[in-house]
Amino acid sequence: MQDLNLCATEKRGLHKLEAGKNLIGWDEVVQGSVLTSFEGDASSVAHLKQEERDYSHFNSYTATVASWRVKKPVFNIDVCIDCQNCWVWCPDSSIISRDKQMLGIDYDHCKGCEVCVEVCPTNPKSLLMFSEQEDLENALSQWPEKKKKEKK
Amino acid sequence: MAEKFDLQEREVWDGNYAASQAMRQAKVDVMAAYPITPSTPIVENYGAYVANGYIDGEFVMVESEHAAMSACVGASAAGGRVATATSSQGFALMVEVLYQASGMRLPIVLNVVNRALASPLNVRGDHADMYLGLDAGWIQFGAFNAQEAYDLALCAFKIGENHDVRLPVMVHQDGFITSHTAQNVYPLTDKVAYSFVGDIDPVDDMLDFSRPVTYGAQTEEDWHFEHKAKQHKAIIDSVPVIEEVFSEFEKISGRKYKRVESYMMEDAEVAIVALGTTVETSRVAAMKMREQGIKAGVVAPRVFRPFPFNLIREALENVKSVAVLDRSSPGGAMGALFNEISAALYTTPKRPLVTNYIYGLGGRDFAVQDAIDIYHDQKANADVGHITTDIQQFSGLRGPKLGFFQTKRS
Ligand code: SF4
Ligand code: SF4
Q: Does ipTM come in above 0.85?
């Protein structure tokens, strides 16, 4: 079973901002609505994976947009052929891929647009949209059968 | 590079030419260019300076004013010294991006050559475009003539780029009256002007790859309020820097600028508050009133963002009757300048009588006699101790008198 929470939650600094604790004041925000992406020097950051990077607490990586979503894509690793289509097309970089292996969805940044489902080529699709409240195990147990090609 | 630009001690320049010379002397790196009357010559002249090798800048031709300000935002975020010019409908099209520029704290300089907003279509000057941008979070200066358009444009770079300020700055001048009327202008030499403005030292520039930043990020209800509060405070707090730069400018030029320009106000009984070229017209009228024994004066906010609340109070608190002149159709309200001046005066102990005059829309001439008529109204108010006319009146309008908001007369 895929680990849907594998992202570097630790590094996101969310725990610090949890429940409004330790929120900074207006006088501390960086002027110019400028968000610094990383802590310290970032010259070689391009070579690192997301979870290895030292993101600043103000990076959008640390902010969640999950509340915008009404439906969520569910990923089924058993059908996936690791073609990377969804990873390429996701407009929010919310598909997690490591070494060309699909691992799941970053639900903190996925806005539920369904583009990944649309581009998935397998039969049945390896990504399907479910209600936001749907339990993941439950969603996976409802996966459709392979569709027969209709004879013409 | 071409030969150095030949400047006389005294030049005959119009306001547009004066502004473009300031752009050349400040060595603007990127100028976004989209033409609109009457500001077109500013970008056009800068283009000619680049083409003729007088300056090493980028002249970016864009497809609209919205794109022009967007190009400025990009170039300024990248770390360049950036400027452009606009008027009227073009200014209106820029408005959306003006808020981006100020929110991102980018020190862009925008020369606004004020002109009426359609419809009806009109290329002549009034302050409709200026009023449209009053809440955009930019520092705003008013130039009353060509010399000031030049001087204030140079100061604008130094103030906006100051690390304690980091805000975009508009320099306003009146369409045609200033922009197309040639006058004597005393320029600084290139060397003096550039050493005054200095090299740009950008903060968080996007070309610094060791410290990547996101500009204008989405923050929703989490941080929007905090950013706006900080931005507002930055504008208010720019006052000491503005004053410091003005006094530094006085040292190199001999020309003194104040956040509020007062004329014959020491003992004034009646006053006119105005912006742009109307200030000079009113000064002439005030002089004539003095010849008739009426103590008249003129107050003009030179810097109207940040609004000089306290200085306005000080300048006007001992006057009996004040006329605030708005050169923009108020669209169902009192004029914006009237509201701001009234707000400042409301908290003074003596509370002068304040009336509002809408005048000069679409380039309608505002003559010395019009100002004299207004002074006579004020004198009548001062003598009886209450407002004797409608509180808002239209000055110079054809047909029967138009006025609104009467008070009960005692
Ligand atoms: S639904 Fe949209 S945002 Fe979410 S993972 Fe799929 S493509 Fe990305
Ligand atoms: S598009 Fe479908 S099959 Fe291809 S990697 Fe994504 S989930 Fe797997």
A: no
